[in-house]
Amino acid sequence: MSQKSSSGSAFRRRARIGVYLATSALLVGTACSNADDTAEADTVEAPSSAFPDNPATGTPVKIGVINPEGGPAISMPNNRRAAEAAAEYANAHLGGIAGHPIEVVTCAAKEDPASNQDCANQMVEQGVAAVVVPSSGNGAVMVPIITGAGIPYVTPSGTTPVELTTPSAYALNSGFPGSLASMAAYSAQQGYKKVAAFVIDTGAVIASTEALGDATFGAAGVELQLAPVTPGTPDATPQVSAGVADDVDAVAIVGDATMCTSVLKAIGTLGAGQEKMVIQPCLDPSVVDAVGTTLDGATAFLGADIDSDGPEAVLYRAVMEQYAPDVDINGFTFTGYQAMLGLIRAAQGVEGDPTPQAIDAAIRTAVDVPMPAADDITFTCNGTAMPGMPSVCANKGIVATVEDGKAVDPKVGE
After folding, report:
1. Can you tell me the distance from the alpha carbon of 335 to that of 342, in angstroms, rounded to the nearest whole number?
2. Mean pLDDT, rounded, for 147-154
3. β-strand 44-45 against 2-3: which pairing, if any?
4. Same domain, 241 and 342
5. Residue 156's pLDDT is what?
6. Please, which pLDDT band fits residue 2 given cuts at 50, 70 and 90?
7. What does the alpha-carbon distance between residue 343 and residue 138 come to, in Å, rounded to a whole number?
8. Which residue, 259, 284, 302, sits at the end of a domain?
9. Does 278 share its domain with 229?
10. What is the C-alpha to C-alpha distance for residues 55 and 70, in angstroms, rounded to an integer?
C-alpha cells in the first residue's frame, strides 16, 4: 500500500532559578511557521499491519481541536489538518475510539486570551469528550474551563504551569524542559564550558529558559548565557556578533522559524565556527532554503522524528500522504498528529461509551503508550514522568544530526 527562534548587558544575564515556569513555553514562540506550501516528500510504504481493516461503526464521539489560526502573528492551519488526518486514519483503521468514529470539532484561536477562552467555552458547549491542543501559549485560560467541565485536555507539550500540574490535563512529551536538559547533558558530554543561547524574546520563553538554566546547564557545569532576540528580527547580526565574541564553545537557537533563519544567516555571514544546537522549528523548509549549508552539522533536539525509516516516522508520512496529501508535513505540523493519535492510542482501553470520564480514566491509567512520530519513546500519564510536573507524560526526546536540512541518525535522549 502506498502511503507518506540584545544588548550586550542583556546577553550577559545568567540563567537563574526563581521562576516556576518549568514549561515548554517555547512552543508559543517557536511554532509560528505560517508555511502552507506543500513540501515534496518521498513516497513511503507503511506495513499493511499499520492499516488494518477496522473501521469505526458506532455513534460518533466528538473530539475538540483548538488550534492557532487567523491571528495577526501566529497561524498554523497545518497542525489542525494533521490532527484531522490522524482522526480519519483512526476511524478507518483503528476503530476510532472504542469503536466509535471520531467527529472532529474545531475552533480557530487567534492566540490571545479572549479568543482562546472563547474556544474553550465552545468545546464545553459542544459536549466534546476530549480536547486536543496542538500548540498554544494560552493554556492557562483554557485548562480551567475544559478540565473544570470534566473534559480531558491533551497537548503534545504544555506551555504554562497550569497545563503541567492540573489533573485531567496531559502534556504527552517533555517539551522545552526536556530539550533544555538534553542540550545541557550533550554540552557536558562534549566538554563545553560556555553556551550562548539565542532565545526568542517573549516573556514566557525567556522566563522558562532563565528558570531552567541553572537546574540543567548549571548542574552540568556549563555556563548558559542568554541573548534575547526580538520576534520578527530580520537581521540578528548584532546579537550573534556579541554572543559568539564572548568565548563560547557552542550556540543554541530557541525560537520560531523566522528567528532561526535570522540567527543562522548571521552565523553564516560572520563565519562563526561554534557548534550549533537547534530545535524543531529550525528544520522548517523555509529555514533550510534560506540558510543553505549553515545548518549542516548542527545537533537537533526534537519532539518528533519525521524523516527516518523508523516505523513511527514512516507511519506519520504515510498517514499524512493518504489523508492530507497537500499539507507540508515538516516544521511543527506533527504536533496535531502527535496529540490526536496520542489521545486515540491512550484511549484504547475505554470500555463502553467513550465519555469524557471514561477517556480521562483510560489516559490516566494507560502505560507505555507508543509516542506518535517518535520511535522508541513511550508515554505514561500517571504523574511520575517529570518531578514537579505531574501532567507531563514522558521524559525523553530525540537527538539527531542535521544533514542537508534533515535530521539524520535520530537517537532517544534523556
Report:
1. 10
2. 98
3. antiparallel
4. no
5. 93
6. very low
7. 20
8. 302
9. yes
10. 33
* Phi-psi sector, 373: left (phi>0), alpha (psi -120 to 50), beta: left
Question: What's the pLDDT at 178?
Answer: 74
Cell numbers given for 122: 465552545
**Quick check: helix, strand or coil at residue 288?**
helix
Helices in 7-60 by DSSP H: which ranges? 8-11, 26-30
**The pLDDT value given to residue 44:** 58
**Domain total in the chain:** 2
Is residue 370 within 8 Å of 393, Cβ to Cβ? no
Q: Are residues 44 and 158 in the same domain?
A: yes
Residue 412 maps to a domain = no
**Whole domain around residue 319: which residue ranges?**
35-173+312-395
Q: Which helix (H) or strand (E) holds 185?
A: helix 175-189
Please state whether beta strands 44-45 and 378-379 pair in parallel, antiparallel, or not at all (unpaired). unpaired
* Cell numbers placing 235: 537581521
Question: Same domain for 154 and 180?
Answer: no
Rounded mean pLDDT of 310-322? Answer: 96
Residue 201 lies in a domain: yes
Residue 102 lies inside a defined structural domain of this protein: yes
For 192-208, the pLDDT digits (tens) are 999 999 988 876 677 77
Same domain, 326 and 385: yes
Q: Is residue 189 a part of any domain in this protein?
A: yes
Place of cell 494560552: 138
Mean pLDDT of 38-66: 81
Residue 161 pairs in a beta bridge with none
Distance in angstroms (rounded) separating the CA atoms of residues 197 and 130: 37
CA distance 25 to 155: 12
